[in-house]
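Q: How would the structure tokens look for this protein?
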Amino acid sequence: MIKIAYLLPLLIILVLCVAVRKKAPVYQLFLEGAEDGLKILISILPPMIAVLSMSAMLRESGLLAHFSAFLAPFAKKLGIPSEILPLALLRPFSGGGSLGLLTDTVKEYGADSRIARAACILCASTETTFYTISVYFRRTSAKHLKPVILAAVIGDLTGLLCACFLSKINF
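A: Here is the predicted structure in token form.
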């Protein structure tokens, strides 16, 4: 039986063998692909830096905690635990930051707690909406952002409400 660790090297060798057999200029094609990749990276780097900087400033300034405290009474009426509000607010902006908050939540409340389950479901069912929009729309130069942002925010809110509902169910 082939180990999974060998699959990627075997795939690379297979692609190289097919390319050599077809007499393709493998090295030249590799360089062209790398050059195209760098062009894409350069074009999406500014929005990436902006969104990552903004999410770090939200966390470090304490604004995220203050905004979460402000929203806590409204969230309680909707059945949303106030402990996951910072995660719900940060998730649309930063995957790494939200993963850090998720880790802290699981450590603090325990992996089997309702709060940790809700946080895990939230992270699994929502997207880093504004990060994704800033990167993809920068690359495609699309013009109509408002409907996309509205649909994405509704999707994130739906994910949050479903996470809170599903976390109540004992599996």
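The helical segments are 7-21, 26-61, 63-78, 85-90, 95-109, 114-125, 129-140, 146-166.

Residues 2 and 10 are 10 Å apart (CA to CA).

Upvote if useful.
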